[in-house]
Amino acid sequence: MALKFEYDKEKRTAVVCGVEDKSCEQIVIPSTVEYYGKKYDVVAIKYEAFRGCIMLKSVTIPDSVTEI
């Protein structure tokens, strides 16, 4: 399962905006991700980020996510 992110380079934050594998059953969102060698805090999940994930049964969301 690979998540897609949008990055804010000034704030060093990331937003979950989608999933590459729509057939996944479980999603675990990390509290941080690395992008071009820099660490970004995952702070939000974008509207319809999991759209089309018809097999999805659970999503684990870290405390760093403050907006859905």
In short:
The chain is mainly β and 68 residues long. The protein has strands spanning 3-8, 13-19, 26-28, 32-35, 38-45, 58-60. It has a 4-stranded mixed beta sheet, with no helix packed on it. Strands 3-6 form a two-stranded parallel sheet.
Explained architecture:
With 68 residues, the protein is mostly beta strands. It is built from no helices and six strands. The strands form two sheets. It has a four-stranded mixed β-sheet, with no helix packed on it. It starts with a strand and ends in an 8-residue tail after the last strand.
Indicate the overall shape. Answer: elongated
Helix-residue proportion: under 10%
- Uncertain segments are none
As laid out across the biggest beta sheet, the strand order is 1-2-5-4
Order of helical and strand elements: EEEEEE
The secondary structure category is: mainly beta
Instruction: Please compute the radius of gyration using only Cα atoms.
Output: 12 Å
| Beta content | over 45%
Count of β-strands:
6
